[in-house]
Amino acid sequence: MKKVNNSLLLKKGIDEKIIKKISQIKNEPKWMLSIRLKAFHFFLKGKNPSWAKELEKINFDDYVYYSSIPNNWNELPQKIKQIFKKKSSLNTTSAVCGENRQYDSEIIYNSLQKKLKDKGIIFCRLEQAVKSYPSLVKKYFAKLMKINENKYVALNTAVWSGGSFIYIPKNVNLTKPLQTHFHINTKNVGQFERTLIIVEQNSSLKYIEGCTALISPQANLHTAVVEIFVKDEASCQYITIQNWSKNVLNLANKRAIVGQNGKMEWIDGNFGSKLNMKYPCIILQGKDSMGRYVSIAHAKKNTIHDTGAKMIHLGQNTKSYITAKTINDCNSQTIYRGLIKIAKKAKKSFSNVVCDTLLLDNKSLAQTIPREIIGNSTSTIKHEAKITNLDREKMFYLNNKKIDYSEAKNLLSFGFIQSFTKELPMEYAIEIKRLMNEY
Fold this sequence. Notes:
The protein is an alpha/beta fold. It folds into two domains: 2-278, no CATH class; 392-439, no CATH class. Helices cover 23% and strands 39% of the residues. The strands form three sheets. The chain has a ten-stranded mixed sheet. The longest helix is centred in the first third of the chain and has 16 residues, at 30-45.
């Protein structure tokens, strides 16, 4: 451990001493340290998942597992504050009712409107929730994503730091979203935030997260875990706009469980990163519940986006919808990897999957790897996949309107992902267009 410019940086590598040191820094209760150590032992024994072959060569001793700066926002240097103003994909604080900002391993800024606190809403760092709301955290933490889920969930559970805890009480509906922005700024640092969300009965939440990182010749590792509990008659929309730099290896494990007549939506925008692997899951447990996943992945310059979704139908008359759009350019690779499973008891259920790819060059590769299991004769699964190239007639028309090739390509690409951008508040849709023009 060393201090550099008033920041705290643990040495590279991972062992029990590192786990205990992270827990000590956070002044955690013994029950959380016990969970960390159990997860660490599974991480040591766990094998690399079969679907994560691209990660087999990771040397986990190449990374730093904790890096922090003082978390008093008012005392931070102006250059750090500017990072969140200039690099954030979500630089629209007026459009939200609460905000977290994470720099490397710690949340350094938190805000929530007082009127929402008065309604019983909790929005804070997960570390704070461990101390202030231990019964809630114990009830839900690592219940959807078990510590032995896979090697990377175990890694996150062992070294997690930062991330948001959100609790929406019964019969409370937010009119504006909550927001968190994650930024990695230190070479070789791994970021392992943990997000835990509970939306009680007949309540609603919209949550938006943005991700950026310093451009560095050394790789950064980002392994997140998100657990969401959506109760009966409740709804949650979770929007991600990921704009990692090309040195980031990203593996996100996200899962939600939905009660009767509840609704869960993942709205997922993927830009940047060297390798991006994420497959958000929705478990439709309650009768008449609904799950929806809308995703874009913009791959360029030898990047790999291996993304998709999982929909598990357990309740009767449940419905799920997946729309996955990918744009490939400059010798890139995209993979849609999905799972639809309709259980025997989930009668009269329905799932619809649409996978569309736009190829902007003749060297990129797009794959669709679906797995679909139906356990009864009263349910239906539909799947459609399509690969297209730039429309030559539209390009010709735009060129004749004095729009150059690059701008015309961006316009058509933006139109291709309209099913995603229409889900966003206007400020964020404009930001997506800017990212596509710069990327």
